[in-house]
Design goal:
Porin, mainly beta, 1 helix, single chain, about 160 residues, elongated
Amino acid sequence: MKKRLLVVLLVLLLSLTSLFAANKRLGIGTGLVLRAPFAIGAVGEYDFGPARVNLTLGYQIGSFLLGVGGEYVFPGLFQNNDLNFGLKMSVGGRIDLGFSSDYTLIRIGVPVTFAYYFDSVPIKIYGSGIPGVMISLYEDPFYGPSNDALLSAQVEIGAMWLF
């Protein structure tokens, strides 16, 4: 049921907007992000033009998340002027912190993001792949303080209203 509702909302959003790509909008954006594995959050972003910074507050099963990142935007890599369609690609760095009663997570990643800007409304949709390293700090009942470092990967999709 939830998947159907999400699909219906996306179809309605796309049907209400033009299918033509717009230029990037500078300034502030706020929105919602869904991240795998299993997180949802609110995101705020400031776009300087060639670069942007973002802050994410979210919830993952059993923990509160805080993330901060920055990205460099590559101009015109995936642009088709004949179809008036273009994706904006960006690459950067990101640090995510996860806080729980049992553990603390630190994720350091390199997001690769593709964003689409709608022409008729100030909305951006995007998807990111974030490979990186996850460090887990926790208290083991038998051995005391402990930590693990693992390779990690996250995928996120989101939508933002641009001011």
